[in-house]
Prior knowledge:
ten-stranded mixed sheet, 13 helices, about 40% helix, transmembrane, Rossmann fold, transmembrane helix, alpha/beta, AB_hydrolase_fold, globular, two-stranded antiparallel ribbon, single chain
Amino acid sequence: MATHDSQNTSFLQRARQFFLILGGIYVFLVALGTTPLVQRNLLYMHNLRLPPFAQYDMPEKYDLAPFKTHNVRIHTADNETLGAWFTFSDPFYTANKASLLASPSSSPDPSSPVPTTDVDAYIRNALRTHPTVLFLHGNGGTRALRSRVQHYQAFASRLRANVLAPDYRGFADSTGVPSEVGLSLDALAAWDWLRAHGAAPENVLVVGNSLGTGVAVQFASALQELERGEKPQRPRGVVLLAPFSSIETLLDTYYIMGLVPLLAPLRIFPFISNFVKRFLVHRFDSLSKIVSLKVPLLIVHAEDDWDIPHVHSETLFDAFLEPHLPTLPEFTAAMAGASEEVAKRMTALAHERAALRTELVAVRDMARVGRAEVFARNAAHGEVVFLRTRWGGHERIGLVEGVQDYMAEMFHLG
């Protein structure tokens, strides 16, 4: 009996030591994440350059058709240089394929490039005659990553649009170090490059995925600020694929690999969680800016997204509705023990909000895809749509053909 008790005690001591060590490692990693250098690498993962040793001047190596995609360089306002791929829309490529294939010099080397002057001429023609997607990717990887290439292919074929896909500063072969302000400048530089090559603002659709949604909102907001005293340069619309409301909120809900909580264990110690968040350098607070966007907006999120919960998209969509609904009083400790009359009033207010929300939002069921909630703003700003899909995950939500079909319908593409 004594031996059995001693074994139980020994096991409990080892278990206690294990969890103490595990807790210590967790605290150390959280503390490490408050430093700017580590924070930057964790958020952007720009040094994760996949696929490794990519040949950016040879897009064909990554399953793109010969001379359909071209490697271009984009210069930013603060003297950084971005690598980017420009992919022709399928209709333009099909119509000009013979000329594109005949453009290389007579060199026997099949990889001989099209002369730069010819490339520019084709790009200018494509931008004048077809809509274009400015694709802002998520963290990690490069423009040659397989899932991103599949987006270019899908947008070029199903949306019949050109695609410009820049790598942010510090990513792939782009110069510089990533930052919140820097990535917004990168998106603006890509926009300016399209405009300089002949693209009309209303022919450019901005599409952001994951981290790219934060960039897209920051960029679109900055673009509106540049309109003062000038003719508006508003894009055809903005599409947010698997967005987050802000990095601060994301920290509370993010699970690494969908399994390991980031800051969730600190919820029982809110003062510690708030202290850690004070050190955030990169915030990407989309929630504070999204309502001011004066363009048609499509928010897309999958229910099986294990990286960023779809509640973030719900929060962004609801932000447009909140000014039109009765305000809920802030919940206080005193209200917890409030009278039955107060409780009834709160319940009635909640019902009133729900009823009014039903009047404001049109719901459209999409067979085997999900459902779309549509909020019609004034005609000048365009509608806001939250498309909640049953599947699609995180990185590949833009590859769901039902999503692409909705994009084509909403933005008159294809």
